[in-house]
Design goal:
6-phosphofructokinase, six-stranded mixed sheet, alpha/beta, binds 6-O-phosphono-beta-D-fructofuranose, globular
């Protein structure tokens, strides 16, 4: 690895049920995805792995770092998934049926629409940016840094490096079996989407 590898956690039971938020663990498939990533990174130098404080990203790091005690790891609250407030643990379908106002506002302006008692993409931006700065500092400036985050958080992190238009950010595709490899210097900006499975 050279630069930053931006990984989303593997599958959870909540993903399977299209359920929002919570603190679920990886499913067997999620564990398998983590093992594929570990195999892919086996011979690569990693200086530092940064996760959120939630189980699904920490379990991913546990598997990635099995047998690699020398690699530094940190868990940052700044990288926890978007706080869905009153909708936490609901399925998207439940939000649509039971909280139609929220559903509509997210459809109209997903970037700015806040979850009552929680966050919007716009309001999580500052803390995610703070997390990026901390992670870059912890890794000695993104040399061989791996961040394991979440769908909304990874969209924000990507937009930090790519300067995407705000209204596009909530729709960036963040797969669970591929990672973004990002090199971002003054003179060179490169983003590749690479499979876990080599
Ligand atoms: O579905 C998984 C998840 O990480 C949820 O916890 C989170 O609310 C969601 O993705 C963010 O994506 P979107 O803004 O598209 O609902």
């Amino acid at each position: 690895v050279k630069g930053l590898c931006l990984v989303r956690h593997g599958e959870t039971e909540f993903n399977r049920e299209s359920r929002i938020g919570g603190n679920p663990r990886l499913t067997d498939k999620g564990i398998q995805q983590a093992r594929s990533l570990a195999a892919r990174f086996r011979d690569k130098h990693i200086s530092c792995v940064v996760t959120s404080t939630l189980r699904r990203t920490r379990e991913m790091a546990d598997i990635l770092l099995e047998g690699r005690p020398e690699v530094e790891r940190h868990a940052l609250r700044e990288f926890d998934e978007i706080n869905a407030g009153e909708c936490d643990s609901m399925t998207y379908d439940e939000v649509r049926r039971l909280r139609p106002g929220i559903w509509e506002s997210r459809k109209t302006d997903k970037y700015h629409a806040p979850y009552p008692g929680g966050e919007s993409y716009a309001s999580m931006k500052d803390r995610v940016e703070r997390g990026v700065k901390k992670a870059l500092y912890l890794s000695g400036n993104a040399e061989n840094l791996v961040i394991i985050g979440h769908q909304a958080v990874n969209r924000m992190i990507l937009s930090h490096f790519l300067f995407r238009r705000e209204e596009d950010v909530p729709y960036v595709f963040i797969p669970q079996d591929r990672y973004f490899h990002i090199v971002s210097t003054q003179s060179r900006k490169l983003v590749e989407l690479l499979p876990f499975q080599s």
